[in-house]
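User: Run a structure prediction on this.
Assistant: Running it now.
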Amino acid sequence: MRKMHTRIKRMLGLSHNRRHSETNEKKNRAKTFSTPEAAKEHASKTGLKEGEYIIEPAKKNRRFRLAKK
């Protein structure tokens, strides 16, 4: 990995004392919902049928996410 120049770090608002890669690729995460009803509504909008997914707890049981069976 190539060293990023300090000027670039300043433009991007990054800290100067850490190594950063020049490509800030974000990892894909599962979308989370505040209620199971909101998760069901999103599943119906995206075309998932009732038996194709499971609603799992996420983030210390405060939010919920969809998982395919």
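The chain has a mean pLDDT of 86.
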